[in-house]
């Protein structure tokens, strides 16, 4: 390969910060960066995504609501990607493809369309928006975000238990008369 070819090949592989964050293809996972968390959606095509939104909010308010992470129920909605993203940023992120085989795109789209408008259970740690879209893409719900949250909760619980035990030991040792 001559120098010119090598340079143009390298340049074409480098992402341009002015380019959109990947051109989504039907069945792709879309990670949307909200101020306090990441929201996940699945790209259907023609600018539309499928995602979970809170049951008790209008469609417009549900798009960027932090309340969505504390809901117990969600509605499956088909919405325009650009409306859901709003002023936030997003990227195509099929990060589990190395460990999980995506289902055929036609199956992903059909499964997604069958769920539009349905109310589903929502749980931040066990059944969140990332679990939902990975279940559609791979047939298995996966959420690195939930795994990290569970790890953080476990760490805080362990630390609180340790401080509690240490406090109990310290209190008992001060109450002994020797």
Automatic annotation (TrEMBL):
Region (Disordered): 1-27
Keywords attached to this entry: Hydrolase, Lipid metabolism, Membrane, Transferase, Transmembrane, Transmembrane helix
UniProt feature coiled coil, ranges: none
A Gene Ontology cellular-component term: cytoplasm
Gene3D superfamilies associated with the record: endopeptidase domain like (from Nostoc punctiforme)
GO molecular function (one): N-acyltransferase activity
GO BP terms, alphabetized: N-acylphosphatidylethanolamine metabolic process
Top-level division of the source organism's lineage: Eukaryota
Membrane spanning residue stretches: 149-169
Name of the protein in its database record: LRAT domain-containing protein
Lineage of the species this protein comes from: Eukaryota, Metazoa, Chordata, Craniata, Vertebrata
Gene (name only): PLAAT1
């Amino acid at each position: 390969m001559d120098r010119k070819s090598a340079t143009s090949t390298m340049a074409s592989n480098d992402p341009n910060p002015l380019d959109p964050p990947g051109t989504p293809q039907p069945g792709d996972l879309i990670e949307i960066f909200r101020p306090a968390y990441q929201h996940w959606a699945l790209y259907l095509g023609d600018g539309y995504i499928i995602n979970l939104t809170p049951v008790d909010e209008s469609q417009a308010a549900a798009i960027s609501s932090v309340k969505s992470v504390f809901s117990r129920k969600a509605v499956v909605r088909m919405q325009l990607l650009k409306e859901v993203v709003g002023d936030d940023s997003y990227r195509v992120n099929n990060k589990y493809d190395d460990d999980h085989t995506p289902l055929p795109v036609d199956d992903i789209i059909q499964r997604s369309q069958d769920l539009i408008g349905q109310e589903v259970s929502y749980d931040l740690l066990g059944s969140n928006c990332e679990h939902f879209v990975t279940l559609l893409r791979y047939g298995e719900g996966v959420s690195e975000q939930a795994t990290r949250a569970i790890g953080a909760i476990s760490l805080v619980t362990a630390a609180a238990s340790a401080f509690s035990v240490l406090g109990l030991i310290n209190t008992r040792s001060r109450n002994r008369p020797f």
